[in-house]
Amino acid sequence: VRALMDELYDYFVNSTLPAHVRIALACCLNMCGAVHCSDIAILGIHRTAPKADHSRVPNVCEIPSAVASCPTGAIRGDMKNKTVTVNDEKCMY
Prior knowledge:
By secondary structure, the protein is of the alpha+beta class. The chain is built from three helices and four strands; from the N terminus they run αββααββ. A hairpin with a 4-residue loop joins strand 3 (75-78) and strand 4.
């Protein structure tokens, strides 16, 4: 996401585009980035099961929401350690 936005930054700051353009970038098929209502939509798809950075999960993630968002149930919460685990075999990526 960051690399793409860095590449497009100058077009939006310098107003070099011919009209107002709405670009959305989503990282999964859940379309949480309003991809369906944008002029240009980019969908990133995981090729491998995502890895959890266990040192950051408690600070940046709501564990129940992360567990609920997995359509195959591959993400499990580990409330004792305040992190998540990913079952690679159940993961659809």
